[in-house]
Amino acid sequence: MTDPVLLATDARGVATVTLNRPERGNAYDETLLAGLIDGLAHLERDHAVRAVVIRGAGKHFQAGADIDWLGRAAAYPPEQAYAASMATVEATTRLNEFPKPTVAVVHGACFGGGCGLVCCVDVALATPAAVFGLTEVRVGVTPSPISTHMVNAMGLRHTRRYALTGERFDAAEALRIGLVHEVVDAARLEARLDEVLDAIFLSAPQAMAVTKSSFLAANGLTLSPREKAMLAHESWTQRASAEGREGTAAFREKRKPAWYRPAVLRT
């Protein structure tokens, strides 16, 4: 079985974390989340690592939660369902508070939890063809595990709009609202990544770690155990609700959910 998260560190100390479920658009389930949590913990302890780059294998960066897994998780008993949601909270929190510089390289689809990951890195680069969406509400679930990170990155105004409508948007809009820092032509993307990494290598590792920690802590951008528990609870209870079950079923069956009402066209 191929590992859902791959780790590789080069001679410079650049660790690449590759989300590796290309046949599912790198959509996450419990196995991928566990791999990401363990991988980040390992890289945090590795003193040779100077920076982390997050990529997606295949055509897409990360297409959100695996819809089949969401369907299964909706039927989990409460303790297991809570643990499943806490894994998302823990993965994004670890990335957000990771003490070394982090970079996301985004291509293809970046939906739901994929946007959450992008909100948690220090530098986000995207290709012009990348497509984004905070799509959880479309399938009757909530983005609670990543909600604080989205507001931190994009501000409440933009987060409210896209998290409530579930609309997809392009890389230019992602740049405008602060989800990504730069949109770079695919042909130049690797060169631009190297330029960003070179700038990181000019900065002192401990100074960067302290700077990052102080930015987050002094501005209330870290999550307490109580806050993490609240977000996980909101997530699993909505997933197990009638809406969550109907939304995931509708997505799998390629139909509109029961709550849909067509807009009335004004003449």
Please summarize what this structure is.
The protein is α/β, with parallel strands linked by helices and 267 residues long.
The CATH architecture would be Alpha-Beta Complex
Helix content: 40-55%
Instruction: Kindly state the number of beta strands.
Output: 9
Number of DSSP helical runs? 10
Overall geometry: globular
Widest beta sheet: strand line-up: 1-2-3-4-6-9
Structure class: alpha/beta
**Main beta-sheet strand count, sense and barrel state:** 6 strands, mixed
Task: Quickly name the level 1 CATH class.
Answer: Alpha Beta
What is the succession of H and E elements?
EEHEHHEEHEEHEHEHHHH
What is the typical, i.e. mean, pLDDT?
96
Give the CA-CA distance, first to last residue: 57 Å
In CATH, the homologous superfamily goes by the name 2-enoyl-CoA Hydratase, Chain A, domain 1
Poorly predicted regions are none
Taken as a percent bin, the fraction of beta residues is 5-15%
Query: How many separate domains make up the residues?
Result: 1
CATH topology type: 2-enoyl-CoA Hydratase, Chain A, domain 1
